[in-house]
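Reading a protein record of the kind used here takes only a little practice. The record below shows the convention in full:
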Amino acid sequence: MRAAIVFLSVVVLACGIAACAPKASKDDCTAACQKNLDLNQPAKTDAADPTAAVEKEFAAKIEQVNKDKDAALAQIDKELADKLAAVKEAKPPKKGKAKPDKKAEEAKAKLNTEYAAKKDAKAKEFADQIAALEKGKSEAIENAKAAATKAAEEAKAAREKAVAECAEGCIKAGVKKSVTDCQQQAASAEDFAKCVK
């Protein structure tokens, strides 16, 4: 009889210890839920610089405008060279020293002045295009930064909400502290899933 009482006492004590195992606190549940999210979300790669794509896009556009400008200015230089070559100078006298041809010099000076103004106007036209692109680039960079900041804030808020909902479910389910401790120590999602006792 005495053996039966001792046996019964041991069984009751064992059942009591198992039933009275401490439940996980809110902090325990929160930490376990955060670990679960970390293990089940894809590995985060360093976020790409939100301005890099904008910089690259506008650098290509500005480079193209500069190429177009160089081609346009080269065309103006060619036209000037052709017109200067076409200016006829008076034939030098057969005897004596040749005098400078004032008409030809004046015509060349006039052409040089005219084409310098054309080049300046064309260069300003391209400078205005580049300035507009630079302004557009600045605005696009600000928009990209704002979008990246907003996306990061939304992701953070979504994570916080998911952790809070998970922790609330953990507390309501009465998960034992030993389970959340095991979950916090898990090295993989598979290890985490094994923490059920």
